[in-house]
Amino acid sequence: MKQKSKSVLEFDKIIEKLSNYAETSNGKKEVLKLDVSSDVEAVKFKQNQTSQALSIIMEKGNPPLGGISDIKEYARRGAVGGIISLRGLLNCADTLRAARLLKNYVLLNNKEERNYSLLEELCEGIFTDKDTEDKIYHVVISEEEIADDASPELKRIRREIQIKNNAIKNKINTIVNSSAMQKYLQENIVTMRNDRYVIPVRKEYRSMVRGIIHDQSSTGSTLFIEPMAVVEMTNDISNLKIEEKKEVERILLELSGLIGEISEQMLINQEILTELDFIFAKGKYAISLNAVEPKVNDRGYIRIKKGRHPLIDPKVVVPIDAWLGDKFRTLIITGPNTGGKTVSIKTLGLFSLMGMAGLHIPAEYGTEISVFSAVYADIGDEQSIEQSLSTFSSHMTNIVKIMKEVDEKSFVLFDELGAGTDPTEGAALAISILDTLHERNIVTAATTHYSELKLYALNTVGVINGSVEFNVETLSPTYKLLIGVPGKSNAFEISRKLGLSNDIIDKAKKSIETEKVEFEDALKQIEDNRVYIEEKRREIERLDEQSRKKHSDFLAKERKSLEKSEKLVDEANYEARKIVENAKREAAEIIKELKKLNLEMDKDKSRRVNELRQTLNDKSKELDENQYTEQIFQEDTYDTDSPISNGDAVTVRSLNQKGFVISDTDNQQNVMVQIGLIKMKVKKSDLIKIKSDEEVKQKNNTTRMVKLKTSSISPVIDLRGLNLDEALLELDKYLDDAFMSNLNEIQVIHGKGMGILREGITQFLKKHKHVKESRLGSFNEGGDGVTIVTFK
User: Fold this and answer.
1) Residue 245, Cβ neighbours under 10 Å: how many?
2) Any known ligand binding at 341?
3) How many helices and strands, by DSSP H and E, does the chain display?
4) What's the confidence (pLDDT) of residue 681?
5) Which residues form the Smr domain (predicted)?
6) What backbone torsions phi and psi does residue 292 show, to the nearest 5 degrees?
7) What is the pLDDT of residue 750?
8) Beta strands 443-448 and 410-414: pairing type?
């Protein structure tokens, strides 16, 4: 029944969709084996794996899973000393390469705030062997060809075969084109029969041409003869091909041995790569659903926030809010047909299964699911003509099985419980079934049309009504799930809207028991009150939002006005300080000149100069106490972070002169400063520490070196000899440097080869942020081996 319930809730369809996100055949098989877990810690672990996969994909893009093959058979063959085919060797090399790239993808360039510990732990167990990769790629060109450079012996043999072939071609062409042979030949051509060069000779001239007959035409008039002059040469080629085959087998055996030596590590890699493909498939599927990691508990509590059924078109699905299992363990949902009742309980069941399988849920943060021993569901039309079972009988058969298997840790879902039989008996059975589950404290959700179940929910502690909203004005459901509100059938209102006369409706009402009419009227009053309260709540939220916005705008304007006034004060003080500083500088220059002419000055003038200097210093001190004047000194050459000590370069504020401290500064108010040839005692508070000329010069040199680096970038980059991933890393860095150097156009040399490097670079350039356009080079630019790139 558990497996049938999963099918009813369409969990198998979720698995099928998930398998489409697996990149490898083994990964797809692993997805198809996915099942739910009843262990809360195991579920949390699986959810954490999915979260880390989602996070790393969002940060770094899709993982490099291409090229992974099932190499178990090849690894085992290599381990026992067998020869692996060319295709098998390439698959092994591709898988080794994919493992290395995936390991780097997970372990390298991770941000400190990111936590990928579960994925990193898996990837640390991945074995890499780039030497074996390179050896295989160097030797094996394709699934049908080995490179001539695979070994010196193979290269020699193939060169001799080529030489022999050329000699045979020259010899036989000479025979065919000789005037003496022309009359014996059917045509002046050379062809092949049984890998031997032959010429078409007329049958009547057979005795005139010495050689071996290999074939004849359908009419028998033409014989295909291998001239005796080339028979021996062709035999030599046959012997060389035998040698070539042996050498190829030796090379393949050697490469197979390399795979055999690391077969155990490769088999472990296979398991890790399969697991990673499975985990990344969960992450990619979560991204496609815009899903979140749910909280997980084991106390039967479910809370769905804006949950969207994953199999309904995202453009039309209506999110639902639902909670169950805390203050109440049984939820009874009522409402009209096609109103969304079935979708609601399917969403509850499917979300529980997805969460227990480690899959994220298409809902909002704050969603919580519980781990159950099993999820049971009886949903849909189970009528079976083949077994002569009615809808009621089929449903009851399922319910009997569920009631036998269910335990206190189960989650049970019923759709239209008790339907398909006499309403009175059906309602009684439904109440009895729900009450039995409720007494056992089993979490249950059920849908129904019966008013008796609404009353049962109202009168039973731990059982609550729910309903799907229906708009009587438009005669259409809204598909919203309401918890705590029993649904109303709306049959009379819908009939009146559709045009049924009031007399008929009133007569129908009279035929219903008074208590039921009063109950339905009460439900209508509750629904009207709920709608009114909901409208008022939305109005309050709208007014509150407007109030918050106006308050925020007011604070922003006030802050802007304050900043503007402060800026004006700053600018005024700054300008004032500049004026005084200029005046100080000019006064200092005058004083300096006067000192030189000190002998020519009388005492009165000297005293007057000292008075003026003292006045100037007092004004400067007043400005020093102003909080806004400090910005005048915040230049790149000032050092305000460290204390002044002996030997430091300083500026004397009062004199605006640079000098050096030449005395100890500890616990001293005054220090000795040397300015040029003059030594004077100055207050420590009158000094500002500055950077020395050497430090300023060093900074300028550093800036100049950066400029020189960007100006010396070559307009050509050669990527030949690199594999695609290495080439793209080099190219990405080079494009940034070239762009910063203001180059308009550059050349990327990638060679012709098999076109893999060229195609990969072309696709990469199409998406690069600095590239305006790219094209293959013209004949005089290098042709297909060069790509010309123009920057934006």
Assistant:
1) 11
2) yes
3) 23, 25
4) 83
5) 717-792
6) -125, 160
7) 84
8) parallel
Closest C-alpha to 8, from 538, 467, 523, 415? 415
Strand locations in 372-456 (E): 374-378, 410-414, 443-448
Q: Which residue has the tokens 């090379």?
A: 251
Strands of 320-324's sheet, edge to edge? 295-297, 368-370, 302-307, 320-324
> Residue 75: which of 86, 62, 65, 89 has the closest Cα?
89
What's the CATH class of domain 295-499? Answer: alpha beta
* CA dihedral for 46, 50, 56, 59, sign (positive or negative): negative
Q: Give alpha helix (H) positions in 70-182.
A: 72-79, 86-107, 117-124, 130-139, 152-177, 179-182
- pTM score of the predicted model: 0.61
Residues 6+ apart with CB under 8 A from 674: 659, 660, 662
Under the banding of pLDDT at 50, 70 and 90, the label for residue 629 is very low
- Say if 2-129+262-289 and 150-254 have the same CATH topology: yes
- Is residue 333 within 8 Å of 467, Cβ to Cβ? yes
Rounded CA gap, 599 and 283, in Å?
90
Residue ranges per domain, the chain?
2-129+262-289, 150-254, 295-499, 635-696, 713-791
pLDDT greater than 80 at residue 603 = no
SS3 378: strand
pLDDT in tens, 307-341: 999 999 988 888 999 999 988 999 999 877 667 88
Does 336 appear as a known binding residue?
yes
The answer to whether 213 and 225 have CB atoms below 8 angstroms apart is: yes
Which pLDDT value is given to residue 188? Answer: 80
Residue 338 known to bind ligand: yes
Does 366 show up as a binding residue in the annotation? no
> How many percent of the chain have pLDDT more than 70?
79
- Contact criterion met (CB below 8 Å) for 12 and 311: no
pLDDT in tens, 467-498: 887 665 665 667 788 887 766 656 666 666 66
Class for the domain spanning 713-791? alpha beta
Phi, psi angle pair for 337, to nearest 5°: -65, 150
Average pLDDT for 661-684: 77
Element housing 391 (H / E): helix 391-405
- CATH code of the domain made up of 635-696: 2.30.30
- The CATH fold assigned to 2-129+262-289 is MutS, DNA mismatch repair protein; Chain A, domain 3 (1.10.1420)
| Rg from Cα positions in the chain | 45
> 558-571 as b/e, with b when 16 or more CB fall inside 10 Å?
eeeeeeeeeeeeee
Structure confidence at residue 99 as a pLDDT band (50, 70, 90): very high
Report the distance separating Cα 143 and Cα 147, nearest Å: 11
Q: Stretch 428-438: mean pLDDT, rounded? A: 92
227 strand-pairing partners: 211
Residue showing tokens 């000297």: 606
Instruction: Please give the single-letter amino acid code of residue 210.
Output: R
What fold characterizes domain 150-254?
MutS, DNA mismatch repair protein; Chain A, domain 3 (1.10.1420)
User: Cα separation of 772 and 777, whole Å?
Assistant: 16
Q: What is the pLDDT of residues 340-376, one digit of tens each?
A: 888 999 999 999 999 999 999 999 999 999 999 999 9
Cα(283)–Cα(418) distance, integer angstroms: 41
